[in-house]
Design brief:
alpha+beta; single chain; binds 3,4-dihydroxyphenylalanine; elongated; BirA Bifunctional Protein, domain 2; two-stranded antiparallel sheet; 2 domains; 17% strand
Length: 346
C-alpha cells in the first residue's frame, strides 16, 4: 500500500510538469482527487486493510492528499503568472517619451497672471497661502469688520449652503485664519503673505460681472508698516505685470476692513481711456483696492493693533487678466471656449 502511494506521488509530480493551462490542471486534479481519482480509490481501499496498517496507511494517504491539494493551488498561481507574463510579452510597446501629436493642454490666462504675480511677490519675501472656497460667515464677514446687518454685506450677496456656510465672496475671508496661523511677526521682522483664490457672488452677469471670479490678496504686517510700503509694493506689482508704465490713480475708498482705504485705478487698457463698456465709460478700471488694516481686524486675528500695523490689498485677478490680454468680456474666462482661451498662451 505505501509503495503504491509513492508511485502515485511521483506520477502526480511527473504529470504536473506538463500542465500548461487551468483546464489541464483541473483534469489532473480529478484524476487524482476526484470521485474515481487514484488517491480516492486508495482511501476507499483502507477499510480492506488489516487493522494494524489501517492507521498508518490512513495517515500517509491524508498527507499525500494534502500535498497534492497544496501543489495544485501553488501551480494555479504559477499559471496565472505565466499568463500575465505572456500578456506583457505580447503587449504593444509604448514609448512614453515620444512627444504627443495631439495638442497639449495650456494654462488658463488667469493662471498665467496669477503665477506671474506669485513669482514677483515670492522674490520680495511673500509666502503664498491657499484660502478655502467654502467659508464661515465669521471669516468672510465678521472677522473683516463686517458685522451682521452691516450694509457692506448687501454688495456681497453669495451662495449659502444648507449648513450655514457660504461660498467666499472675497479673498479677504482668509485674513483672519492667516493671522492666527502665523501670529505677530518677531521683532524686526514682517509677516508678508499672498493669497489668491476663486470668489463667488450673486451678480447680474454682463461684460464685467461674473458670479465666479478670481482675486489675489496680499497682506504685510509689522511694527512699522505705513502707506509708503503699500504704494511701493503696488507700483512694483503693476509695472511687472504690464511690463510697461501704466497710468494709475489713487483715490480714497471705503472698505470696512481698512482705515484709511484706497482705490487704485488703472487707465482702461481696452479703450485707452476714452470710455467703453468694460470701464463703464469712465476711462478707468478699479483694479486694486487697498488700505491700512483696520485695528479691529488685527485684534480679531490675535495681533495687537497698538504694536503692529499693516497693509492689505485685494487685486481683481480676473480684471487684471482682462486688462493685460485686452479681453473685452469677463464671461470668456469660464466659457470653456478653448479656441478663445488658447490665444493668450505665450
Ligand atoms: N475684499 C474686497 C472686495 O472684494 C477687496 C479689498 C479691498 C481687499 C481693500 C483688501 C483691501 O485687502 O485692503 O471688495
Amino acid at each position: 500500500m505505501l509503495e503504491n502511494l509513492d508511485k502515485i506521488r511521483s506520477k502526480f509530480s511527473e504529470e504536473l510538469k506538463a500542465i500548461d493551462s487551468n483546464d489541464k490542471l483541473e483534469k489532473l486534479r480529478v484524476a487524482f482527487l476526484g470521485k474515481k481519482g487514484l488517491v480516492t480509490e486508495e482511501l476507499k481501499n483502507i477499510k480492506n486493510l488489516a487493522n494494524d496498517v489501517k492507521k498508518v496507511a490512513g495517515k500517509e494517504l491524508n498527507i499525500l492528499k494534502n500535498e497534492i491539494e497544496a501543489a495544485i493551488a501553488q501551480y494555479q498561481k504559477t499559471l496565472e503568472e505565466m499568463e500575465y507574463q505572456k500578456e506583457i510579452d505580447n503587449a504593444e510597446v509604448y514609448d512614453y517619451s515620444i512627444p504627443s501629436e495631439k495638442p497639449v493642454g495650456t494654462l488658463h490666462p488667469i493662471s498665467i497672471v496669477q503665477k506671474q504675480i506669485e513669482d514677483i511677490f515670492k522674490t520680495m519675501g511673500f509666502v503664498i497661502e491657499d484660502g478655502l472656497e467654502i467659508q464661515t460667515e465669521y471669516n468672510n464677514f465678521e472677522a473683516v469688520n463686517i458685522p451682521k446687518n452691516h450694509p457692506a454685506r448687501d454688495m456681497q450677496d453669495t451662495y449659502y449652503l444648507e449648513n450655514g456656510q457660504i461660498l467666499k465672496t472675497h479673498t479677504s475671508a482668509a485674513q483672519n485664519t492667516i493671522m492666527k496661523k502665523y501670529g505677530a511677526p518677531n521683532p524686526g521682522e514682517t509677516l508678508k503673505v499672498l493669497f489668491p483664490g476663486r470668489c463667488f457672488r450673486n451678480e447680474n452677469l454682463d461684460a464685467s460681472h461674473e458670479n465666479t471670479f478670481f482675486q489675489l490678496e496680499g497682506m504685510m504686517i509689522g511694527e512699522d508698516i505705513s502707506i509708503s510700503n503699500l504704494i511701493y509694493f503696488m507700483r512694483v506689482l503693476l509695472t511687472e505685470v504690464f511690463e510697461r508704465d501704466v497710468k494709475v490713480r489713487l483715490r480714497p475708498g471705503y472698505f470696512p476692513f481698512v482705515e484709511p482705504g484706497f482705490e487704485l485705478d488703472i487707465n482702461c487698457e481696452i479703450c485707452g481711456g476714452d470710455g467703453c463698456t468694460t470701464c463703464k465709460n469712465t476711462g478707468w478700471i478699479e483694479l486694486l483696492p487697498c488700505g491700512m488694516i483696520h485695528p479691529n481686524v488685527l485684534s480679531m486675528g490675535g495681533i495687537d493693533p497698538e504694536k503692529y500695523t499693516g497693509f492689505a490689498f485685494g487685486l481683481g485677478l480676473t480684471r487684471l487678466a482682462m486688462m493685460k490680454y485686452n479681453i473685452k468680456d469677463i464671461r470668456l474666462f469660464n466659457g470653456g471656449n478653448l479656441k478663445q482661451l488658447k490665444q493668450f498662451v505665450k
